[in-house]
């Protein structure tokens, strides 16, 4: 029977197959032609071709027969998210099924839209795919035959090439094909890890970072951890910092960050207060002997100064005022500085001990230069008072970027900055608190890779992120997202060919994710590996049913809690 009858030519069916034709007849079961291998499972034909997406006609009865196959890939044949292959000349095109509907003529025929993923050569003897690569050079013509991709094919397609990579889990639906991330491509163009609370996001982040640390024991990774979850995961491979040992000198702040901390006024008064602070801060910085030989000193220069000097200069400037000018701005700034100096919660940053020039040491310990086999520093900001958390994150992020800029010409030491709960620091709204941190992280997203700074964003609310940031991430690792706005946001940021995958985001199980973009050769759905107990973050949810059956020792608990609460953790 020929193709014009709307069916498939009988020569291409395998002996076991009866493919129902559009015309209603069945193709006679004929032994396969010699150059075909039994891997070739004919399931349909191409009916419509366009640049990125095309449509194929599938036979429901054949799909039904294949669904009991022992090969997990074949059993999924024809389903949304499954792969199919189409022969063009001596190459195999591989495509992924995006959606399906019944043919208007019914009769067990299904029309499906496919996205082309790439192509590979055909091995002469077995007919399998090898040398798979992204992108399509030749398109099939309508009437070309469509085959189910087997596990052998998927092995070839997903097999990592020679580039440096880390294996993170098994490719769905197989049990043994490994999914890999290409480290250089992933870090070179930033990455984002998304997923609703409870989908295993922190554990996945820990898994990926552990794998990268194993691959690159001399790496430089800075992780901003707002909930104190990750210290438990990196006890042996990381340097752990919190308010007790961070010792972040206040004078490392630039002028904008100083304003966020010391200037409390809003509206029109704010500008006047900032101008006064700029004048006095510059004087305080120039008093340091480091400043003696320098010609160009600005309010942003990271030169140590004494808080007492700054207060004295404010006092002197205030004394020079004539009677008509108000001294209120000076009093406001002085009040705020004195308050922060006296409050023990701010000791990690504003203590008098931090005035020495420790800049090289501080940068060395935070950026792991040298890394001493501990390539990651976890900076737990959960103990930082909430009103300056964003400033602390801003300072750390900016130091990363500034270090990269000023170290050009030196042997390169690229740095990865991982930001958990990223929507807090790069919010979509561009007014209000925390603009310093938003600006610097947006800048790293846009320009970081030129200087060797990579950004990893982890968030459960991609829709709350500032607009351009997600689209700057070359690799997107998405776990289940329950919120529809978030799903829509991720769709918009994903590359074209991954659309079919994106639709399965609400259907992902825990510990399952979809990866697309630069870090993978083609979009994959991966079931992540189990992480050893001691490498997991401390983020498991409380079990109410279990904990609400326990009692005893409440008086002692309360006493200890109140004591810590009153002494602010000291």
Characteristics:
6-stranded antiparallel barrel, 11-stranded mixed β-sheet, 570 residues, 20% strand, elongated, alpha/beta, disordered N terminus
Fold and architecture overview:
- With 570 residues, the protein is an alpha/beta fold.
- It is 33% helix and 20% strand.
- It contains 19 helices and 18 strands.
- The strands form two sheets. It has an eleven-stranded mixed β-sheet. The chain has a six-stranded antiparallel barrel with strand order 1-2-5-4-3-7.
- A hairpin with a 6-residue loop joins strand 5 and strand 6 (129-134).
- Helix 12 (386-406) packs parallel to helix 14.
- It is elongated and about 95 Å long.
- It starts with 40 loop residues before the first strand and ends with a helix.
- Residues 166-398 form the Helicase HerA central domain.
Layout of helices and strands:
Elements: E1 41-48, E2 53-59, H1 60-66, H2 72-75, E3 83-88, E4 91-102, E5 109-122, E6 129-134, E7 145-148, H3 151-158, E8 165-171, E9 178-182, H4 183-188, E10 191-194, H5 201-215, E11 221-225, E12 238-241, H6 255-262, H7 267-286, H8 307-319, H9 328-342, H10 347-350, H11 359-366, E13 376-380, H12 386-406, E14 415-420, H13 422-425, H14 435-451, E15 453-459, H15 467-471, E16 475-478, H16 484-493, H17 499-502, E17 512-517, E18 524-528, H18 544-547, H19 554-566
Parallel strand pairs: 10-15, 10-16, 11-13, 11-14, 12-13, 14-15
Antiparallel strand pairs: 1-2, 1-7, 2-5, 3-4, 3-7, 4-5, 5-6, 8-9, 8-18, 16-17, 17-18
